[in-house]
Write a structure and sequence with these properties.
Largest sheet: none
CATH class: Mainly Alpha
Number of strands: 0
Distance between the termini: 17 Å
Strand content: under 5%
Radius of gyration: 23 Å
CATH architecture: Up-down Bundle
Structural class: mainly alpha
Shape: globular
Helix content: over 70%
């Protein structure tokens, strides 16, 4: 497909719907896949936090230990298995093999694991006796042991974002989309996908409210889990069915995919050994710069979210209340993301890649700094806040919510799309294995990096809480955002060079 010029669309269609009618056969099912994957991601993200923050003997302080010492090693194991499977399976079968274990576990958690927690988990008294006899730095790891099934849910929900959303979907999209199409189509994918945030937020709140009035003797959180995990399983099955339909009815059409082989046929060419590919990847300045963007985003958001979730956990005392608030947060993130998608799509078409890519770190730095400053000085603002009917705690929760909604809606609208566009000039080997390393390991390293920083402070400083370590975290946050902006500038130079070599028009 040739690149679309502004003359091919009317003014308003160019802003809201820059897609040809014949392209809908490809764009609509791709958008639906993105919708279902992001819907599941949003539901799982809310539930995993509600489980571990409000779990017996747990609190928000367990999150850095989970991310740094449980999720990160699991992501590395996943990456190794994925790279090996990519040599053995066609891309289509690889997608199914990646998705299926997640769907099976989440269904099993709601209907088999959670109803039997009294048998599977140690008692709260047992965990507290362990903590009393152990050194301080083991307090929160032992709390994780006490809620091990929640921790496993948390780990798989976290990896879903990297493995299914960032890796599997975007790898497929990059394989079947040209750079000239990406300017129009990727923004539309993102716009459609934000509907998933609205839907997941609405459903999460709806089922939490329904669970508030259960039958006598029925656990209200069990009711919420049954509904939400049942929908997650159905959504995963629909994702695989639509994926199969694209292979059967879309990709054979030369208008949509004109490479010699479909990206799902068995691999015939002998691949380089994985460790050699890994070495080549880490020797690539181009991929390392993409990894730097992902890592800096992960650390910056993780540092901000940790402090916010601590306060939210104090405000919402039970899992249904926590999930209700998170569902509302998700809904409004979807609203803002849709607005930003419309704005971001036009920024992508009107400005250079650097301009679009630099907006997210700049906004994160500015608004994140405001949140940290407010939390550090909120005690002195209690009188002023009282005159408008707000407590310092609730005001901090609201401000943190607003900051994260702004940062994440900008991330969905601009950061994700500009990052994916950066992969397109790479060869097929780097798009598969390089993206696996950068997205799964790099993405997890970003979150784990922030988690390690916070976990070290919580473990080593006597009596440390999120509020005690907040000044030190703020300083690191400013440093990380500065490195992020520098990496964006360096990568923009590399992208222009790659496009010059390939003969493409500069974006």
């Amino acid at each position: 497909m040739a690149e679309v010029t502004s003359a091919e669309f009317s003014k308003w269609r160019r802003i809201f719907f820059p897609i040809h009618s014949y392209e809908l056969k490809k764009v609509i099912p791709m958008s639906l896949i993105f919708f279902f994957i992001l819907f599941n991601y949003s539901c799982l993200r809310n539930i995993k936090d509600a489980l571990v923050v409000t779990g017996p003997g747990s609190d928000a302080e367990v999150i850095p230990f989970l991310k740094g010492f449980c999720v990160m090693p699991s992501a590395i194991v996943f990456m190794l298995l994925y790279a090996k499977a990519s040599d053995l399976l066609s891309n289509e079968r690889l997608f199914y093999a990646t998705l299926s274990p997640f769907i099976l576990f989440f269904g099993a958690f709601a209907f088999f694991i959670y109803p039997n927690l009294s048998v599977l988990h140690p008692s709260l008294e047992t965990v507290r006796s362990w903590q009393a006899a152990a050194p301080q730095f083991l307090k929160w790891p032992l709390a994780i042991v006490g809620i091990w099934s929640y921790a496993l849910f948390y780990i798989l929900a976290e990896i879903w974002g990297s493995a299914i959303l960032s890796l599997s979907f975007w790898q497929f999209a990059n394989q079947v989309t040209k750079t000239s199409e990406a300017k129009r189509v990727y923004a539309f994918f993102g716009l459609m996908a934000q509907l998933a945030l609205l839907f997941s937020g609405w459903l999460g709140e709806k089922f939490s409210v329904v669970a508030d009035t259960p039958l006598p003797g029925v656990d209200p959180w069990q009711v919420s889990l049954n509904w939400l995990m049942g929908i997650v399983v159905c959504s995963g099955v629909m994702t695989m069915l639509i994926y199969r339909w694209i292979y059967c009815y879309v990709l054979p059409d030369k208008r949509f995919y004109d490479k010699p082989e479909l990206p799902g046929v068995s691999k015939k060419k002998k691949k380089a050994p994985f460790w050699q590919s890994l070495k080549d990847i880490f020797m690539s300045p181009y991929l390392l710069l993409i990894a730097a963007l992902i890592i800096c985003y992960g650390i910056g958001i993780n540092l901000t979210e940790g402090l916010w979730k601590k306060q939210l956990g104090q405000y919402c005392k039970n899992p249904n209340a926590y999930n209700t608030y998170m569902s509302r947060y998700t809904f409004w993130t979807g609203i803002c993301s849709i607005i930003m998608m419309i704005v971001g799509g036009n920024i992508l078409r009107a400005f250079h890649w650097f301009t679009a890519a630099a907006i997210t770190p700049a906004i994160t730095l500015i608004f994140g700094s405001l949140f940290f400053i407010f939390v550090l000085f909120k005690g002195s603002l209690s009188g002023i806040l009282g005159t408008i009917g707000l407590t310092p705690l609730f005001a901090a929760v609201l401000l943190g919510t607003a900051v994260l909604i702004i940062a994440k809606s900008t991330k969905y609208a601009l950061f994700d799309l500009t990052k994916e566009m950066a992969y397109i000039p790479l060869d097929e080997e780097m798009k598969v294995k390089g993206k696996a390393v950068v997205e799964v390991v790099g993405g997890r390293l970003g979150k784990a990096g922030g988690a390690w920083i916070q976990a070290a402070m919580l473990a080593l400083i006597p009596g440390a809480t999120y509020f005690v370590i907040a000044p030190y975290v703020f300083g690191i946050f400013i440093l990380i955002c500065s490195v992020w902006l520098f990496s964006v500038k360096k990568l923009s130079v590399r992208i222009e060079q790659a496009r010059s070599v390939s003969g493409e028009v500069s974006a």
